[in-house]
Amino acid sequence: GQQLNQSPQSMFIQEGEDVSMNCTSSSIFNTWLWYKQEPGEGPVLLIALYKAGELTSNGRLTAQFGITRKDSFLNISASIPSDVGIYFCAGRLGTSYGKLTFGQGTILTVHP
Amino acid sequence: GAVVSQHPSWVICKSGTSVKIECRSLDFQATTMFWYRQFPKQSLMLMATSNEGSKATYEQGVEKDKFLINHASLTLSTLTVTSAHPEDSSFYICSAPSGERDQPQHFGDGTRLSIL
Q1: Of residues A33, A72, A28, the one with CA closest to residue B95
Q2: B66-to-A27, A95, B17, B32, B77 alpha-carbon distances in Å
């Protein structure tokens, strides 16, 4: 089945630094999604990407859908302590009601 | 906006007990819902796809007799962990696709299951 490789697994950064994480897939997706999850809660959508090559921003977050449709990255600029959490990429192939395949997650720690 | 409500949020029970978790779509109809399992600091692993009015579709390696799924209405899916054991302790999360471009799936807040 489809697999997503997300890296890095964890990051320890200082407040104000920029962050970059990415996901690669063994096969193509037609939707890439980026989520953030905090302890004891469900994932919260950050950015949705629907077209190869698409670059989308949401505040300090920027994500891109790779041209090959097999990869995506998420950048966070000028990190702040509340950015702490686990970030997941997710890919979907098929209809808008289709299932998601999640990456392994990136644990982000921001030191004040 | 659309919301998915999951209940209970936390349950602790003895080994051998069966536990039911509910997932409700509050202001939209969901013919499909997804059930995930998540261990600490790990990813969400899809367990099964719940289909209203028909049998659930289980992912490879998930025991359908262990994890019973019922999707009897367009707003409710339930996951029952039968004869739970400590190794079943995990965080269970449901989601429902909304068909909305800006919010592809709505996730519940999860259920923390602890089996003693």
Answers
A1: A33
A2: 31, 29, 12, 20, 16
Please report the beta strands in chain B, taking only residues with DSSP state E, as ranges in sequence order.
4-7, 10-13, 19-25, 32-38, 45-51, 57-58, 67-73, 76-81, 90-100, 103-107, 111-115
Output DSSP code: residue B73. E
pLDDT tens per residue, range A31-80: 999 999 998 899 999 999 999 999 999 999 999 999 999 999 999 999 99
**Band of the pLDDT at B103, cuts 50, 70, 90?**
confident
A-B contacts (CB, under 8 Å)? 61
Is the pLDDT higher at A32 or at B97?
A32
Chain B contacts of A43, Cβ < 8 Å? 44, 93, 107
Of residues B32, B45, B60, nearest to A97 (C-beta)? B32
List the structure tokens of B30. 């969901």
Q: Rounded to an integer, what distance in angstroms lies between the CA atom of residue A58 and that of residue B68?
A: 39
